[in-house]
Amino acid sequence: MPTVDVALGERAYSIHIGRGLLSDPAYLPARLSGQPVAVVSNETVAPLYLQTVHESLLAAGAKPFAVILPDGEAHKNWQTLNRIFDALLKQHCERGSTLVALGGGVIGDMGGFAAACYQRGMNFIQMPTTLLAQVDASVGGKTAINHPLGKNMIGAFHQPSLVLVDIDTLATLPQREFSAGMAEVIKYGLIRDADFLHWLEANMSRLMARDEIPLAEAIYRACRHKAEIVAADERERGGRALLNLGHTFGHAIETGLGYGVWLHGEAVAAGTLMAARLSTLLGWLSTADVARIERLFAAAVLPVRAPALGAERYLQLMRHDKKIQDGRLRLILMKSLGEAVVSETASEAQIAEAIRECSQKLTTDL
Ligand code: NAD
Ligand code: GLY
User: Ligand 1 pocket: which of 109, 142, 172, 185 to mutate (most atoms <8 Å of CB)?
Assistant: First the structure.
């Protein structure tokens, strides 16, 4: 059973990766015994996995209760967040109580933000059930909700005390969601691990068939990268920003189309190709490199063209990016495949050109 440790001193925690973890109370910490535990999930995931988690928590001596939220990115907002606070208060939760986030990145981000705010910070455990959440969102303590003007704009850093990645949950994940998660797996290869990128190219058809052995390896390697990056730069003052490859463009797609129209991972894939194209305009990547990325995304059934929102609209949306400093847009670009940098080098005209080239034939259809 592979475990990845996130080395954050007094906030250190483990990511356990394997099969059948949700049904095994041995993975739950002793401190849950006798305590109320809020299991935050949604209308889709709860019917699949809530009972299993509930039974494990009971076996660990905890007093679980469920908070079931509506499903979807469009509900990642204050109204939904308040439903978690209502339930925590009604159940007399204390700061020492625990919140479990059982679901994808939306539930993880919202549950984590509720845990960060409730009585100024309560214990929380991530039980991610999408590929995207297993390889990225559940690790590293970024929690947030969306604002109509920008994605993930209201949030906090609040680390979980444990992450349980139960690979069995991927069996019920719809194909489109699985592909979206693969965009974040590919991201690690593009930003810092050319060997992993090569391995992904060689194994993508087995991964897309959800072959358990390469899938577990991909998740493990992705979590190791995420843990290393977070341990080195928890608050994104440096290298953690590289995890945002494709995200500035991608967030513009998500906000511009309306939350939930394109999945986060789909928007990241199209955004990564814009970043790649921009990297060629700066003389860093070759067109052959961009074609290689495009082939890998296509093999993962991800979009290789972005919606045609218009370059001006993209730029307007991108000006809300959290990486902006002193009003200057900072983008994650690639010097080569496997080496990303934070860059302010590109002019607005070059950014607009990359946007136009990657979105010119586009519709919002995938
Ligand atoms: P999601 O949480 O919306 O889940 C995708 C869909 O799959 C939902 O309909 C969900 O109900 C369903 N689902 C989840 N698990 C399932 C399962 N096992 N079987 C069947 N259906 C299942 O989306 P996501 O892609 O997991 O996460 C995207 C969110 O994560 C975005 O809001 C993004 O901003 C956030 N995110 C956060 C971080 C971070 O570091 N905190 C990193 C990346 C993304
Ligand atoms: N997903 C980006 C980060 O965790 O920093």
Answer: 109
